[in-house]
Sequence to fold (214 residues):
Amino acid sequence: MSDQHSVVHLLRHGEVHNPEGVLYGRLPGYRLSERGIQMADTAAQALAEHDVAAVIASPMERAQQTAAPIAQVHGLTVGTEPLAIEADNVFEGQRVSVGDGVLRQPRTWKHLWNPFRPSWGEPYEDVADRMRRAVANAREVADGREVVLVSHQLPIWIARLDAEGRRLWHDPRSRQCTLASLTSLAFHGDRLMSISYTEPARNLLPGASPIAGA
Fold:
């Protein structure tokens, strides 16, 4: 690894077509909505002038779709990083909104006893470990340039908490990781120098004002 300035952009995928409102997690077949495709294109435009050496994505369809226009702009093909996949969750395929669906059923309460692990899915420490390795892999590819790594909200947020030395358990409502947002990790060699956050598709977020971000 050379002693150069490299950037790993952790990009969350765009909006997913999910009319049933279920937790899709790692389930196959969940692709970007029309607005999600616009979000991906907007992210590609935001990164068009960057010195991108590689575009890598989680194996999930929505992440691969989000990566595609960025790779096209830079004349690259999309690589796949299994370590950047969505976190595992026992409630996949079910409605999990507060006060709605599966969380109101007593048979599921056995999975809710420990929010610090969490007891309903992949431990935060495991997510942090694999995302740390995914970022390290991307940084090696960058080697003085920039890499875009498309992943999912929870893995990206855990990667940020881990990089900042903060506790991993958290209120999901506190995550700063909107659809098609960029959490950018800047390195000098293997030393993390800074973390920045931007929302290139902010105007496309559900409920956004036409002048949001102006």
Q: What stands out?
A: The chain has one domain: 5-20+34-88+122-204. Strands lie at 5-12, 52-57, 78-80, 146-151, 182-188, 191-198. The radius of gyration is 17 Å.
